[in-house]
Write a structure and sequence with these properties.
131 residues; alpha/beta; Immunoglobulin-like; 1 helix; 26% helix
């Protein structure tokens, strides 16, 4: 009888530890939103016809990596939360729906911010026109 309660106690403790670990993982997933301290807003227009989604990409100029990707189906307005920093922004029509800019996909020019974003900044960008 004592062995059964000992095994039950061990399973209960293991279950509690597993739940605590899941809560910790959920916290880690939410952390990027906690560091998003500025916002880039704008519109996208397209001179080419099509039903393909529009992708707006934000690139960190210092780290040279993509910081944010927004997929726009019908609404051509975006608001991208980003950490403070220096950014480039462009948009493209994702005809093959793979989320990456292809050689034959229409795109906008790359808009590079003249100065860096600081915590709390909300910057309205010029319209990105896809040609």
């Amino acid at each position: 009888m004592e062995k059964r309660f000992g095994a039950l106690r061990a399973v209960s403790v293991g279950f509690c530890l597993a739940l605590a670990g899941c809560q910790h993982l959920a916290k880690d997933v939410d952390e990027p939103h906690a560091t998003a301290t500025a916002e880039l807003r704008g519109r996208v227009s397209a001179t080419t016809e099509g039903t393909a989604p529009i992708v707006v990409v934000t690139i960190d100029r210092d780290a040279r990596k993509i910081m944010h990707r927004a997929f726009l189906a019908t609404d051509r307005i975006y608001a991208l939360p980003v950490p403070a920093g220096h950014y480039k922004v462009y948009a493209f029509m994702d005809r093959n729906r793979d989320g990456a800019l292809g050689a034959q996909e229409p795109r906008s020019v790359v808009y590079a911010l003249a100065s860096g974003l600081r915590a709390g900044d909300r910057l309205e960008l010029p319209t990105l026109t896809i040609r």
